[in-house]
């Protein structure tokens, strides 16, 4: 019996060692399997993302295509409006600079304007400057000249 006991112990120890190796191998296989599973899931996820992007791009193209010409036209119209707005700003600034000059000219012209009645009927109205007491008076009386006969 003593002789059998060490053989059984050695055998048990051997079996325990084999069991540990099998457990380690199984754990390695599980780790490898988990790693492969992660890679497969990642590749599937990437493939799904690619399909989503393609589908989304195709939907965008399908929805934008009918409106694309109108959008391009609106863009060009907006650019034209911006150009014209800049030109109008330049014109308004130029006109604002000319306003004081024009007001001065209008003031001068108003000062020069005479009453139309005085211009038309100048010989009838005979408007002359008033004679104040401190002014010199010059009489200009026409003299009749006798005609030689």
UniProtKB/TrEMBL annotation:
It comes from the Eukaryota. This is Uncharacterized protein. Keywords: Coiled coil. Residues 16-54 form a coiled coil.
């Amino acid at each position: 019996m003593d002789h059998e006991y060490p053989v059984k112990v050695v055998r048990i120890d051997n079996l325990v060692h084999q069991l540990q190796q099998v457990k380690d191998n199984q754990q390695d296989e599980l780790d490898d399997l988990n790693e492969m599973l992660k890679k497969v899931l990642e590749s599937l996820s990437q493939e799904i993302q690619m399909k989503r992007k393609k589908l989304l791009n195709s939907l965008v193209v399908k929805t934008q295509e009918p409106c694309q010409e109108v959008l391009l036209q609106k863009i060009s119209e907006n650019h034209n409006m911006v150009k014209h707005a800049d030109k109008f700003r330049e014109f308004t600034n130029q006109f604002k600079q000319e306003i004081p000059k024009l007001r001065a000219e209008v003031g001068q012209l108003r000062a020069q304007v005479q009453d139309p009645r005085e211009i038309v009927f100048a010989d009838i109205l005979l408007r002359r400057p008033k004679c104040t007491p401190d002014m010199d008076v010059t009489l200009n009386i026409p003299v009749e000249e006798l005609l030689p006969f």
